[in-house]
Structures are given as structure tokens and as C-alpha cells.
Specification:
Chain lengths: ~575, ~575
């Protein structure tokens, strides 16, 4: 009879324990959790703040009792595994309620300790109104604290998934929320062009957004930033990031990887073959960069846990590595991303190009048809799809899941172009935005025409480049680039003489489709130096949102009807 | 200068014409449409009846004027192409307004005539209150007619996409609607187990649903069915199916395929290389059955049109055939399907198996979390994915689009199991329903355990087979199979002696997950003849919906909380 110990519950640990039971009815399985809850919905924690989840009890998915009766698994809560004795195959456990320390032996040990919030030694970091969010107890403390009548202003430090979700939920609960992010943008998985939509969404919903500035110190009623700026805050939430919890593994002499996570082989065994490790604490292989990476995501944790359990029982695993897919709702926007963004592709020294397409998420005359912003990254010259980002009020996660499937299967732009997706006017268009992106990508890959990205527009405008705006007059009049020439597509053929042939010409419309037609017309008429502005006017305005090249923020919002 | 004529507008014709223009600014392009509208949203027509689309003008997407100004394409409406003279490369056109007949020459001819509603010679079929739905004029006539005060009861004949959408929209407009389908089920792309959910949805929303009965004759105020049943109806909509419009092609001596569609080669050329054909009128290659098929879908039409235009200009096409993906909203349910269903797999003589999984569409504690019914068909013994069907209040189209991507790329259960989809509690679960289906499928493929399908349950019950219901007592008491033994999963280990070892035992719970655990436990305890009921109690009840094995329809709805 095998004795299997599991360190840590939640996604990784609980899945591993349950899978072991399915494979072996006779195994003795003990799961240790240092907190009071062995299984809770990690990713749902922020939603308790915004009252989307009505009670903290609902966050708890399984109790030790249900593990016992359903799976014959002993789940011991408030018990911290403090040491591994690899030679004698035992662990030392501290009962946090009684402080008693005892030992358990194992045949196999599965580590799923997760990751801890990063808490740098800021001045004031230990004040009682400073919080992190890792488990039900954390969120409960924060929830109780912010619901005191005198807590109105809250600062959230860190613009990653947790920071953004916490900020949103506190805002929905009626708080005045400041979100502070050290780098120039929130939500690092999105590129700087796409992320401006999210910056706008945060601002539009009353979040005080500060990017490019870091926390310096915390006082009783305020935070001070590196810039010297003071922000009033009766509560501070630190959501700066997480680091793998490797103390136990390190002390036991298990190998640690180059990124600071526990190193595992293809079967999720650590350097000690009797000890497996899964979840946020480990390093995994990235199938696109071919390098180690870390992912703090529930989906991969669950798959790793199952694979580890399978391997314990002699079943082969099929470890192809990860691509990194994630999604988040930010107020009215659905946001999803998979694979590499531009930054990651650059870092990995992969030759790539990208397209930015804005297309209706469903047939325009259906209720709630909205533009979906979609960015596709592909390898040059193969056209292999590397990543995608989607943001909109509609079904962004669908589009990204489709791209995730294609990336996993090694799909190319040609595959995506031909992809036969379901179509109903309620759900999409006959040629879905992902198909359109593939068509545009193929045009770029085969140099059928040239594009510039919205991030280059400001410089070009300042250098006096020639921009042709092919929208209709009334669209042009409601707001446009400085010095742009307005020649509606419908008049282009007859007014072609107004366009200079001796210098580069940059064409845009609202979303990039009419300008693409204009570019093709001009090419056929012998123009050799014509560029389409990828993302077009919608993209330009979003990109320039904070910097006001042509107009003020309020004016952009009003004129261009972003809402 | 090339002269390109296009017969038929809408998806196929208009796309081909526009693509030709992008490739060739100088070509002369004329598009002929016999109706008054050259470009309209075909798939949105039924939504005008339900006032989802508020005006018929909105259904029209592009006018002849906009084709002229934007694309320099001449779109001639109310002009019917009545003959092709292949030797002299001309067509004869009849101006339906003036009855004048004239000729146009072509270098290339593109046929996109679409498909016509099937109208068998029923008695009364030509009465003025009998309608078909093919274009804006049709839907306008129907809309005007049913909005007369004396039209309250409407019969829709045919339970395919159009029939169902028309029935739904008329019902939403307050009409008493009877939907008549000749075969035993509506919506043929769904298998008989899955489709019961749709039958229920139609009934729950007040549609008078009649399946397994056909139209015999139409009188002024009623229809009569083959069974002799009379149904009062002041209007009748025929949505029996469509047949390819091949008159022109046939008369011109172009080759017609075995299924009655225009035969084309890989480049969408007909047997005359100067004549291309695209859209609903042609036969296409099915990449899973490797046989010709017909598809009346906008997505493939648009791709074919582009490919044809590309080929005219010397670009290679990449014709991998079709898999057939479609989706439809039916009242509160989103429904989508891709690839082969069981019927199609059988017809194609492909060895397959299937799994039926019911899982939450998002994390259970999030608002609007609902069960998603998901069926996956895979090849035996390779595990290659052949098709899928999804129905639920949540994001069914997402799951099917992911499967469509996998099918296109030749993906297997193993690929689907590992598929790294985006996860946020708002959109899905850490292990999405599609991943779960792959895990169950692999278990079945590798004979890790055995399953029976819900369609077999009735016979087994009647033969006195042993059913163990492992739901909790209170679930069991609110409704259960006749003679089922209730042993909750949590009591299974201690009550295992109550289970017979000398005969087959069939285990079910609510959705199939607890019963899977029970099956594994029993297997480990030496039981060799244990089956999991795929789809479990939810599936059984839905399947038995019309036949009332254990209880009446009302009781099922009340007890089992299907709503």
C-alpha cells in the first residue's frame, strides 16, 4: 500500500490527491494545508470584495469532511509541513493550532506549495491597514476592513491580474480606488497598443490610474510614490506579484531552477524522484520560446497535478510545455491573451510581425454588436502563429481560445485564414475577426502591402508626414489627425491627383478596412510608397489617449464615441 | 483589361466581386442580381420577424451606389441572367423591370446563384398565406402578413436552422406557433440525445412542437398532417430545406455533381475553366468523410469566393475542404456544432465513440453559471476528434470553435486534454468542459472503464437492470429512476456489500462526475462489470422527456429543475 503525502491544497494539491485516489483505492493519502481551507476558488477571491460572490463561505469548495467521505482522503488543515527528511522519507509537520510537531512517512511526496505575494520592505509595509490577497482569510480580513465606515479611499499597488481585479471590485463596492503600477502599463500580457483600451476602461469607471510610478512608503492615511506624489488611502492592497514558495524544497536540497522555481523533469519529479512538484511553485517549459518560464495559473496547475499522479502509477505523461493563456473581465470589457506578445517575442529573439484588427464581434445589425480589438503575432517568414490579444465587450475569450488551439497544434496564418468557425449573426460574422486577422497577416507576410503600427503615428505626424483619412466627411469633421487630408474612399479614384507620388503616404480610416481598400487602389494606380495604418483611427486615438497629440482626453471620448 | 461577370450577390457573389477589384483596379466588374437587393444579411432575415432587427432597411448591407463608389463595381439589380453562351463567352440577361433582354460578354464568369427553398407540390402550396424565406422581399411580405390583426396562429414547416429561427422569432412577436418536422427531431446537426434539450426549450417557450409528422395539405385556415392531425394556421412558412440553384449551369452544360450541386475543382472552376462557381449552389469536399457534400453556410461561401478570385489572378488556392460548423440561438440557449455527429460518422463508416459531458460553463459561484451540455465524437482507435455539439445558456459557440480548430488541425483527444485555454472564473473553469470531455474520451478509448449512453437506459430499466444512483438522498428523493438503488458516493465504501457482483451494474449521479468516481472505486474493489451512465440523470431525463418512462413532463420540469 502506497502512502502519498501532499503539501498544499487548492488547485494543484487537491487535484493530485483526488487523481491518486482514482488510480489507487488502497493508497493512504494525506493532504496538508497550513491555512484553514484546503480547497477554495483562488481566482474568485477578488469577487467577494465586489459582492459578486455573496459570502466567504461560498469561496470554499471542499471541506476536509467532503474529501474524507467522497475520496477517502485525509485533509489536515492548519498544519504546516516544516521540513522534509529525504533520507528517511518523512516530513515534519507543525500543527498550527496546538504548536505540536510530528512526523509522517511517505512513499511519494507531492509538493504544491503555490506562490506568495511579493512584499518588498517598503516603509510602513507592516501597518495594520496593509493587505495582500492570497487566500480566503486574507480576503475576509480585507473585506471586513474596507467595510468600516471610515475607509473610503483605497490604494492598490500593482496592475497585474490580481491588482486589477481587486481595484475593479473595490470600485464596484463604491470605494475611491487608486491603482498604482510601476511600469508604464498595467496588465503586462497585453502590448502597449492594446493595453490603452484597458487604461481607458479603468479611467472611465473612476479608477485613479497611476502608471510609471512606484510605491515609496506607506503612512497611516496615505501612500507616497517615487515621484513624490502623495495619495490618500485608508487601506493599501499590495498586489505587486508573486514568487514561488520554495523554502521547503530548498531546505531539503531539491534543485531550484534559473527563474527561482522548483525544477522538475517532464514527469513533474523534482531532483528527488520520490518527490513531485506542481503548480505555481515550479518552473515549466515554454513551447514557443523553448525556455523555462513560470506561470501562476490554475489550468496548468490542474494538468500538472494529474500528470504527476499518473506518473506515480506508471502512466506516461505528455508534457509539451505551456503557452500561457489567460483572461480577465475589466468592468465592461472582456480581455484575453495567449502565447507570446511582442515583448516576449522580442525577448526570445523570434522574428515576428503583428497585425491589429478592429472588427465587429457579431453582425452589425444584431443587438450589442461591438468592435472587438484583436492583435495577432506571427513568426516571419513561416507565418506560424505565436500569440494573440483580444479586448472588447463581446466574446474575446472565444477568439483567444481558438488561437490557443491553433498555437498548440502549430497552426499558421494559412490555417487560420481557412478556419471554419461556427457562424450565426448573434455570435460572429461570416468571416470572423480571427479570419480577418489571418488575411491581413498574410498580406503583410507576403508584402502585398505595407503597414505602420499606431505606435509610430505620433512621430510621423510630428515629422509632417502625409496622412490621408479616407473616412466620410462627417466622420472626419468629428475629429481627426492634425493636417490629415480627407479623401473619402468613395471619392478616391477621382481625387487621386491630390495625393503626392514623391513621398510616403499613410492611409487610415476608422478601423483599417476602408484604408486597406484605398491602399490597394493606389498601388494599382502606380503609387509605390503607400502604408496602411494598422488599427487605424480607433487605434491611434486609443494609443494617444494619455498624450493628447491632437486633442484632449474628454474630447476623444466625446467625439469618437468610444463608450 | 479583364471583364468579370458575377451572377448573384449576397455573400458569395459580392465577396468575389470585391476581391477581384482588390486584385485588379482596371477590371470591368458587373454583378447581376435578380432580386432588388444585391447585398443583404441573409442569416439575419428571421430576426426582422422578432423585431430584433428593427427595420427591413437595416437588412440591406450595400447598395448598387456603394458598390460603385467604393469598389467601382457595377451592381445591376432586378436583372436575371437567363442563359450562358459558353462558346462566345456571353450571357443573356433579362431586365425584370423592362422585360428587355440583352447580352454581356465575359472573360471570366463567376456563378453564385445560391439555393432555393424546397417547395414540394403539397395541396394548397400556392395559397397567398404560404411563404418561404430567402430574401428581404420574402421576409418583408411575411412580416407584413403576420402583422395583420387576424393572423394569430402560424405553422412553420421544417425544423432546420431557418424553420427554428423563424418559429422563435414569430413566437417572440407574440404569435401562436406550431413547428412541424417530418423526422423524429428538429435540428439535424445535433444527435438525438442532445437535441432533446432543444425540444424542451421550444416547448418551454410555448412553441407547439410536432415531430415525426409531415405536411399533407394546406387549407385557408389550417394545415393537415400525414397523421391526419389538423392544426389551425392563418399563415404557413415552408422551411423544409434548400436545393442548389443549378438551372443556369445545367442548361449551359456545366457538370453537376452526384448530390445535385454544381461540380467544381480545387480552384472552384466548373467543368468550363472560364466559369467559376461558389456558395450554396456547389458541391464541396468534406475533409472528414472524404466525400462530396453540400453546405448552405455563409462562412464557406465567403472563403470560396475569395479563393476563386485569387485563382483568376494566378494565386494558388488552399482547398482543404469543409468540416461544417454552425451555431444558432434558440430562445435562452446557445447551440453550436462542428464536424460529424454520430449519424454522419455512421454513414461514413467511420469507427467512432462519443462522450456526453455536463459541466459548469463557468465557476459555480459566479453569476449566471449554468450547465453546458457537451458531446464529443472521436475516431476509434486513433482518438482523432471528429465532431462536437454544445448546448447551454453560456458560451457554447466558444467551445465548438475550439473543437473546429482542433479538427482542422487533425487534433486528437490527447491534444484536447492538454489544451491550454484561457481561464477566468467569469468565463470558464480551470479545467474547461472541453478538456473534461477529452479526459473522459481517453478513459473510454483506453477502456479504463465502460459507459452506456442515455439512449440505452430505457431498455435497461425495462429489463430490470441494476442502477445505482450515487447522488445524495435529497437529490434522489426529488425524482429518480424506477427501482434505482440510492447509495450516495459518500457512503459507497461502507455500503459496497449492497451492490451485486454477479451482474452488470449501471452507475449514475446528476451529471456523471460522481458516478465516474464511484465506478473507479468499485473497479478497484474488484467489480468487473460496472458502467458509468454517460450524461447521467440530467441526460436521462432530457432523453426521456417525451416518453415519460418514470414520470410526466411537468414533473420532470418541476422536480429536476431544468429551467
Amino acid at each position: 500500500m502506497k502512502k502519498v503525502l501532499v503539501v498544499g491544497g487548492v488547485a494543484g494539491g487537491a487535484t493530485a490527491a483526488v487523481r491518486v485516489r482514482r488510480l489507487d483505492e488502497k493508497a493512504e493519502i494525506i493532504m496538508f494545508e497550513k491555512g484553514p481551507h484546503v480547497s477554495f476558488s483562488n481566482c474568485s477571491l477578488p469577487y467577494y470584495l465586489g459582492r459578486v460572490v455573496e459570502s466567504k463561505e461560498k469561496l470554499v469548495l471542499m471541506t476536509p469532511e467532503s474529501f474524507k467521505t467522497k475520496y477517502n482522503i485525509e485533509a489536515r488543515v492548519n498544519q504546516e509541513v516544516i521540513r522534509i527528511h529525504r533520507e528517511e522519507k518523512t516530513v515534519e509537520i507543525k500543527n498550527l493550532e496546538t504548536n505540536e510537531v510530528y512526523k509522517e512517512s511517505y512513499d511519494v511526496l507531492i509538493l504544491s506549495p503555490g506562490a506568495n505575494p511579493v512584499v518588498p520592505p517598503f516603509e510602513g509595509v507592516n501597518l495594520p491597514h496593509v493587505f495582500t490577497v492570497r487566500n480566503v482569510a486574507d480576503i475576509d480580513r480585507l473585506h471586513q476592513y474596507v467595510n468600516q465606515s471610515n475607509v473610503e479611499r483605497i490604494a492598490v499597488i500593482g496592475g497585474g491580474f490580481i491588482g486589477v481585479e481587486v481595484a475593479e471590485n473595490l470600485r464596484e463596492a463604491g470605494k475611491v480606488v487608486t491603482l498604482v503600477e510601476y511600469s508604464p502599463q498595467i496588465m503586462a500580457p497585453f502590448d502597449e497598443d492594446m493595453v490603452q483600451i484597458l487604461h481607458k476602461e479603468m479611467l472611465d469607471h473612476g479608477i485613479q490610474l497611476i502608471v510609471g510610478d512606484g510605491l515609496k512608503k506607506i503612512t497611516e492615511n496615505a501612500i507616497e510614490l517615487n515621484s513624490g506624489k502623495q495619495v490618500e488611502a485608508q487601506a493599501v492592497v499590495l498586489a505587486i506579484g508573486v514568487k514561488p514558495e520554495i523554502t521547503l524544497a530548498k531546505e531539503a536540497g531539491l534543485e531550484i531552477g534559473e527563474l527561482g522555481g522548483i525544477k522538475v523533469n517532464a514527469n513533474y519529479q523534482t531532483s528527488d524522484p520520490s518527490i513531485y512538484a506542481v503548480g505555481d511553485a515550479i518552473e515549466v517549459y515554454h513551447r514557443l520560446t523553448h525556455k523555462p518560464t513560470r506561470l501562476a495559473l490554475a489550468g496548468p496547475a490542474v494538468r500538472q497535478a494529474r500528470a504527476a499522479a499518473d506518473h506515480i502509477y506508471g502512466q506516461k505523461t505528455n508534457n509539451k510545455g505551456v503557452i500561457g493563456s489567460s483572461s480577465v473581465k475589466i468592468f465592461d470589457l472582456n480581455c484575453a491573451v495567449t502565447g507570446l506578445n511582442e515583448r516576449a517575442a522580442k525577448e526570445a529573439n523570434i522574428r515576428y510581425d503583428s497585425v491589429y484588427v478592429i472588427a465587429p464581434d457579431k453582425v452589425g445589425l444584431m443587438p450589442n454588436s461591438n468592435p472587438l480589438h484583436f492583435k495577432l503575432i506571427f513568426e516571419v517568414p513561416t507565418g506560424r502563429i505565436l500569440g494573440a490579444q483580444a479586448i472588447g465587450k463581446g466574446n474575446a475569450d472565444k477568439r483567444i481560445d481558438v488561437i490557443a488551439a491553433l498555437i498548440t497544434m502549430g497552426g499558421t496564418l494559412e490555417d487560420l485564414k481557412e478556419l471554419e468557425l461556427t457562424y450565426s449573426p448573434m455570435y460572429s460574422t461570416a468571416r470572423d475577426v480571427v479570419n480577418i486577422a489571418a488575411l491581413v497577416g498574410l498580406n503583410i507576410l507576403h508584402a502585398d502591402y505595407k503597414q505602420v503600427h499606431v505606435s509610430k503615428v505620433r512621430n510621423l505626424v510630428e515629422q509632417g508626414a502625409t496622412f490621408i483619412d479616407v473616412r466620410e466627411n462627417h466622420e472626419f469633421e468629428s475629429g481627426h489627425l492634425v493636417n490629415a487630408i480627407n479623401i473619402p474612399l468613395s471619392e478616391l479614384r477621382e481625387r487621386v491627383d491630390e495625393i503626392p507620388r514623391d513621398k510616403p503616404v499613410y492611409i487610415h480610416c476608422r478601423s483599417g478596412q476602408r484604408s486597406y481598400n484605398a491602399v490597394k487602389i493606389l498601388q494599382h494606380l502606380g503609387f509605390t510608397n503607400v502604408y496602411n495604418v494598422s488599427g487605424s483611427f480607433l487605434g491611434i486615438c486609443l494609443y494617444e489617449y494619455f498624450t493628447d497629440v491632437t486633442t484632449s482626453r474628454e474630447k476623444i471620448v466625446t467625439d469618437y464615441n468610444f463608450k
